[in-house]
Amino acid sequence: MNAEVSAGHNGRMTGTARGARLADFTGLLADRTRATFCLALLDGRAWTAGELAAHAGVSASTATAHLNRLTDAGLIAERRQGRHRYVQLAGPQVAALLENLVAHVDPRPEGGRSLRASRASAALARGRTCYDHLAGRLGVAITDAMTSAGYLDQTSGFRLTDTGIDWYTSALGFEADALRATRRPVARACLDWTERRTHLAGASGALLCTRLRDNGWTRRIGSGRAVRLTPEGAVALGGILPVDVTALDG
């Protein structure tokens, strides 16, 4: 029976149809160019089609065709400003899916990598944005410090404690309602693909990342996803969290 019509009498999709839909969906990421686009968009910013084409080393027409497929599948969202077309990931759920998939990829060393590529890889491992929150050693270290301080409870899921909410208001200057202003979970575990451990995502992870950036405590390295603590940020973060900031420089 054709997968498109293989639904039961109650209208529910059968296993065959679900398998076909899953195969179609995962096939989108089986293409190297589309996967490269999605990973680039994990930096949380909006990119133009031309920027993504140059990043992946493909022509503008090829990029457009791939972006149309990703848009139709709901993986990326498009907005236009003047004559420019900008695209970004459709939301944090898509970012979490991509990050979790990357975490299961065998991290085989790439032979013959240039010094520049090695440095870029090391910078990503040290600290980076994962869509709208912090990842890498920096993100994991902050998550561990928040847990140690009692601000984050990982014993039964991933939960920001009442003490943690107070910390967001007193140390970071947020209103408590800011953590509940969206439909997103306040705190969510995201598997870190370089550390193979979890870091903080969700509304609290996004707010923390924003505050560190706006305070000048972190800065982006180049045009990619890599970020690192500034000297001022190291002092400030060490003053509000039990985190060994010196261990984040290597």
Low-pLDDT stretches are 1-7
- H and E string: HHEHHEEHHEEHEEHEEHEEH
Backbone structural class? alpha+beta
Mean pLDDT comes to 85
Biggest sheet overview: 3 strands, antiparallel
Strand content: 15-25%
- Lateral strand order in the biggest sheet: 1-3-2
Q: What general outline do the C-alpha atoms trace?
A: globular
| Count of beta strands | 11
Distance between the termini: 57 Å
| Rg computed from alpha carbons, rounded to a whole number of angstroms | 20 Å
Number of helices: 10
What is the count of structural domains? 2
Brief description of this entry?
The protein is an alpha+beta fold and 250 residues long. The protein has 10 helices and 11 strands.
List key phrases describing it.
two-stranded antiparallel ribbon, 250 residues, globular, 3-stranded antiparallel sheet, single chain, disordered N terminus
